[in-house]
Amino acid sequence: MITSSSHRPLSLKPLKIGDILLDFPVVQAALSGYSDWPMRVIAKRKGAPYTLCEVMLDKFLVDMKERKRTSHFLHISDEEHPVAGQLMGAEPEQFALGAQKLVQAGFDVIDINFGCPVKKVLGRCRGGFHLGQPEIALEIVQKTRDIVPDHIPVTVKMRRGIDDSDASRDNFFRILDGAFNIGVAAITVHGRTVEQRYIGPSRWAFLKELKQHAGEKVILGSGDLFTPQDCLDMIAETGVDGVTVARGAIGNPWIFSQTRALARGEALPEPPNLFEQRDTILEHFGLAEQVYGEARVGPIMRKFGIKYSILHPEYEWVRKDFAKAKNREEWQVVLDKWYAEDLPGQHPNGRMHKAQSSS
């Protein structure tokens, strides 16, 4: 295991996705309900070289009219490039048309979601459901690759299978190998099964096996990345080309700059103090206000305030107050109450994956 106390710089390779070269192999994952434009911009400013938007439904994109209320879904700014648009759907032809909409919106990469484990998604034959039907999954990949211009990479997000049966494993590798043969530039694999959802450990040993199978093809790992050390450990232990930080980046965009510092051989930076947290929260709120408007921004930002609170030494109380804040004035009351004194922050707890790796 790489330890932050070693203070030895690591020779991490840049991450290549098609013709896109990223200077650091730790990126922000697509996060349903979270990785909108404001979150992506904050992550970029804190050191993420690449981000993915929250997953969108193909039908929604194909049918979407140009309205202010939905404009945030396709909102991109110059500073966040490269950025990927992630797509989910059931029917290959419509999926391809949805991908075309993401291209027209200006996304630099089109990412296909075959990993979502949410029940209502599976019930509508989307997301992780496709891991049980390789033919349809590969038809979606083929039609997407056909419609997306050659210079724009297509990537895939998967879990390690529907479950841990032999049939599920066979389907996984059939989709993985088939997608690479079609021409996808990279595949991200979450170390849990669809059946697991978010329960139990992510199986990093599978990621190691997978990278050995894939050889020079680009594999990104995902699952149980909550600290900078987790990110570096996954790369070191599995050999994957990069990692995507999902839940560990919500409310903690500093994970990207902290991971960069560890990789340079520096000690783990201190967590952001309360004034730095306050300034970033206000920055995030201001960005959200730009795309959602004053009337909507309060309730939308509530979930982010709850996540930011984990870095506060009195997080349980701060969390409760953020959960009740409905508008900018009430947010300011919370900030004035809990962030008025520049106290040290705290790091969120990471997983003890060494103890769980055999699970």
Q: What report would you give on this structure?
A:
With 359 residues, this protein is of the alpha/beta class. The chain folds into two domains: 4-263, Aldolase class I (TIM Barrel); 274-338. Helix content is 43%, strand content 13%. The chain has helices spanning 37-45, 58-63, 92-105, 119-123, 134-147, 166-182, 204-214, 228-238, 254-263, 274-292, 294-308, 315-324, 328-338, 353-356; strands spanning 15-17, 20-22, 26-28, 51-52, 56-57, 83-88, 109-114, 154-159, 186-190, 218-222, 242-245. Helix 2 links the parallel strand 5 (56-57) and strand 6. Helix 5 runs parallel beside helix 6. The longest helix has 19 residues, at 274-292. The radius of gyration is 20 Å and the shape is globular. It starts with 14 loop residues before the first strand and ends with a helix.
- Strand pairing plus helix content: what structural class? alpha/beta
Q: What fraction, in percent, of the residue positions are helical?
A: 40-55%
Uncertain stretches of 5 or more adjacent residues: 1-5, 351-359
The top-level CATH class of the largest domain is Alpha Beta
What is the makeup of the main sheet? 9 strands, parallel
List the total number of helices.
14
From the coordinates shown, what is the CATH architecture of the largest domain? Alpha-Beta Barrel
Number of strands: 11
